[in-house]
What does this fold into?
Amino acid sequence: MAPPQPQPAPAVPVPTFVAAPSPPAPEPAASPLEDADDMGGHTIRRSRLPATGEMVTAVVCPAGHLNPQFAELCRLCRAPIAPQTPRQVVRPSLGVLRLSNGVVLNLDRGAVLGRNPRPVPGVEGPPPSLVRISDPTRDVSSQHLEVRLEGWFVTVRDLNSTNGTEVALPGRPPVTLRAGEPFTIEPGTKVMLASAFEFTFEAGS
It folds into this structure.
């Protein structure tokens, strides 16, 4: 009798794996800033978020313009303000910055100016407008100047720029800002960044 032949081992099934479909790529987060057209190669990025929040104490002129409680003449129409009880209101726009390239920037929030501006850390309130200045000579620093709204006041602060900032109040000679120190400006003030770019603060209309 022939010896029994060895039986082949049963085949072991090889597991197969089906790759799960890759999750869809997340939609890019919408930027809170939007580009605004300008002139002369400069770019202004304004926040899409509303500039609401800060309350101020105000009085009203005969034309209905809101003014600081200590004002005797309207900051916009210059009409006399009658004695009245001040009231709390949401702060209105404090005016405009008229830039040397023809752009008019509304002061419903602060602003940062420079070749590559970004918000200043630690500053509360709505995101500032970012004014990117085209300056092939690089006299203007990447983070040159901050404009901040504090109550009814507008202040400017040199952000330790390389070539400095000059401020000329109405009817006065220009002065050079000390880096990091806020300087209160008034309508009619001219601000010059490194003698390469300038703007004028106006009360608006």
Q: What stands out?
A: The mean pLDDT is 82. The longest strand covers residues 55-60. The radius of gyration is 30 Å.
